[in-house]
Amino acid sequence: MIDPSARIVLVEDHAILREGLRALIELEPDLKVVGEASTGAEGVRVARTASPTLVITDLAMPGGSGLRTIDALRAAGPDLRVLVLTAYCTDEDIGAAWSAGADGYVLKDASRAELLQAIRCIIAGQKYFSEPVSVRLMSGYVRRHDPASRASPRITQPEREVLTRIALGESNRRIAAALRVPVNTVAMHRANLLRNAELHNSAAVALFALRNGLLPARDVEQNFSNERPAARSPCRQRRQRGQLH
User: Fold this and answer.
1) E-strand stretches of 15-103
2) CA–CA gap between residue 222 and residue 243 (Å, rounded)
3) pTM of the entire structure?
4) Check: CATH 3.40.50.2300 for 139-227?
5) Which one has a higher pLDDT value, 159 or 220?
6) Worst-scoring range by mean pLDDT, 82-91, 133-142, 182-191?
């Protein structure tokens, strides 16, 4: 259950967006906006005085990069969690936010339900990346690595077998049939993986599998290619090189 005292600071240079986010968040009894800022530097100052649980920040604001803001927030409070809310999801932006220590990355065209899910996941200590962001993270990793197979110490052998098949896009029923176990056993292993590895969807499971060498990278890359042959990317590109949003 989410701590009823969950406190949130909004860092966004567009006042109308801050007002909309505040109105949306404060409809929830377990969430409270305790501060706002229109620049990264101001956001860091507010975070130092308001002691928030979570800061929601854009990546492009007057006065400097949102990536530097993430770094400064981490220095200001090591337990502070950071959610990036932006309109853009280029590989460069996502990778930089991940490296800077962002706990989540959600696109501004996300639904109200998804944004609230992301907020609650991150406050609960998990990571949250929108589905297209997770796919781009994974695809970028696939292009750079094809790790040798090695077991992850964080999961059991049965969970590893289930994880491999989840990463390949198989349903619980199909996994159960292949492994000759009850469907509820597969569901239990899936739930354990999501909880223990702090994963929130199948794309994040696939990324975890790749990072831990649990399957050949080409298999997952092929699976996502097959699932999205004609899909139009929901990620908007930056208008100019070097511009972050």
Assistant:
1) 31-37, 54-57, 60-61, 64-65, 81-86
2) 31
3) 0.60
4) yes
5) 159
6) 133-142
